[in-house]
Amino acid sequence: MSDSLKERVRAKLIRQLEEDGPDPEQDDVRRVSVQDDLDILNVVADDDPFVEELAARYLVF
Question: Which domain of life does the UniProt lineage start with (predicted)?
Answer without folding.
Answer: Bacteria
